Sequence to fold (167 residues):
Amino acid sequence: MKRNRRILNVRLLPLLLLIISCSSRQNSLSAFVTPSPTIAPALVRHYQRGSVPARAAEWLYRCINGDWDWSQFGGGPKDAPANPVVRNNLVLAAQKILKPYGIPKSMRFVDKRSYVSNDGHNRTAYRYRVTFTHGILIFIFAEDTDGNVGGMLISTKDSGFTFWRSG
Fold:
């Protein structure tokens, strides 16, 4: 009986050490901010709440996570919020471009341009150069004078994604 206990202890000790080691690694990993719809992204915290850069950073994370808040587009785009297929395809297209870049590390304002859209929205587009863990891209976030998201453009040297409010 004592021999069996000793063998059991010898076998359980490495397992116990492995479990303790894994749990300590998990705690250290949780210190890194990862893009998630439930975690406030590090990039957003760099900007004053409610400012255009904070909102642009929020939408960059929404594009990465597929967590689009369609109500922020106001009355448009006309069919996207009502059509789950269109909604899903837009979300997947943005994610396909952004996912390989990893986590956004910094977002630098480049310039802005105000114009009237084809649908008559007074819009300002803000262009940012975003540095990720695996590269750099251009992100344009547009806001309409009515406070709604006007749209966005994600551009790399090889591909791009664009979506603009209409209606």
